[in-house]
Prior knowledge:
Elements: H1 16-27, H2 32-35, E1 40-45, H3 57-70, E2 74-79, H4 85-88, H5 99-115, E3 119-124, H6 129-140, E4 144-148, H7 174-178, H8 194-204, H9 220-239, H10 243-246, H11 249-262, H12 268-278, H13 286-292, H14 309-315, H15 317-324, H16 341-347, E5 369-374, E6 377-384, E7 394-402, H17 405-413, E8 421-425, H18 440-448, E9 455-458, E10 470-475, E11 492-496, E12 501-505, H19 509-513, H20 527-534
Parallel strand pairs: 1-2, 1-3, 3-4, 7-8, 8-9, 9-10
Antiparallel strand pairs: 5-6, 6-10, 7-11, 11-12
Amino acid sequence: MKKPKSGQxxxxxxxxxxxxxxxxxxxxxxxxxxxxxxxxxxxxNSHTDLNPGxxxxxxxxxxxxxxxxxxxxxxxxxxxxxxxxxxxxxxEGMRFILPQRELIANIVETHVxxxxxxxxxxxxxxxxxxxxxxxxxxRLDLPAIMLTGxxxxxxxxxxxxxxxxxxxKDYAGTPQALSCCxxxxxxxxxxxxxxxxFQCLAEAMGLALPGTANIPAFHTAKLTAARETxxxxxxxxxxxxxxRKILTREALMNAVVVDLAIGGSTNSTLHLPALAHELDMELxxxxxxxxxxxxxxLLSISPNGPHGIIDLFNAGGVGAVMKVLADDLNxxxxxxxxxxxxxxxxxxxxxxxxxxxPKSAPYLPEGGTVILYGNLAPDGAVxxxxxxxxxxxxxxxxxxVFNREKEALLAFDANTIRENDVLVIRxxxxxxxxxxxxxxxxxxxxxxxxxxxxxxxxxxxxxGASEGPCVGHVSPEAAAGGPIAxxxxxxxxxxxxxxxxxxxxxxxxxxxxxxxxxxxxxxxAGFMRQYAKYVTSAARGAVME
Length: 545
């Protein structure tokens, strides 16, 4: 079998050093004669005990390794960090979540380059980890395949009060509402947040086996998919089917189309441009606006509607979504099967048209993610319009300005937030925070207080589970001299989603900016100081250069 990279271990022209390498390989319990003949496969696992989305991945990795061995390869597993956004919400830990995307990409890349593998299997479930692994695959350009960990099941599904919906707004009372965000199993949170968005997009880009992305974490079919994934990577090595043959510009555009149709997380506007950057391409934010008036939102998955990812799986999965979108996709794109996307789509079935709706009767007429431009966001800002009530698509309100998420939360504790307020939370961008934390705690506070008309504008970001007129990723950020730094309490702000604008009304921003004294948050010694120095704008994917 082919060993395009790991054959270097067995270059006996190195003399005594080659003997040292042989002794170390033998010390792992590997038969050296067998190792000389079989490809080395890296099994990159983000298993951790402190994240329900990843707690089950050890078992999946074992099945992957079984598949690799069955197909004639030799698997070697290593791990990467697996941060949980939910557990980091509302405290200092959230500043460190997005930066771990870069660390995960770096760890995978450097370890695979140093230990000389022939192919890689990437196993992950959640936010930042899947994008980081995809970025590493793009850098390495080895045969690579993604195994997603799958979604969990919300507790409400096992409740006598279950009404066929997993959206908390459909239930009265705190216990029932909490059951819509309480995990009853391992796996990624069942909403269409960043985790499940990128599980879907991994398959849409062709880097996961067809039909595997949405298998629930607890389903036995996930174990079968893991074994098949292990077998397939050995075939990809033999065929020299590398990541960049799959991750083309056309594949990235397919991902944007699918993202819009599924009502995907606003974090896609960070991770897809970052992946494009690793592929030596550009994916400007304007691409989302180029497509979102043409591509409707087909799915009504929470927070956009009543369904969950398990409903999507039962309805046919992302493959069935792509079947509906076939005319909008480049179906010539290659997938990990070695065959074009059209073959995968042909095998998909739409099993429930009430979950995966036809383009002629979509859940919403436009795609989920919208980019806003204006004097408050010259380089763009992002909103998930599929999670905004129709009567708030245009929102004009008075600014309440905070230089940290914590300040806004204290205002809720003091009961000083009012209807029609626009909460402006700044100095929370990639450089300013640093780390661009999510502000899910603030959006949850709005819902908990019973406020119906409160908007949020921030140079930070949101969880994919956020809803309402929440505008994030405002670029340039305040710490980089963006106009959001000029906003004052009482200013009038207009959010106009249909016209794609975000405006500070009746203010001479240039004059105000002359008097702005930038806020500088304390940065702990270590990696975050490097991150703040080298990270770019959210409009460019918050990559490090």
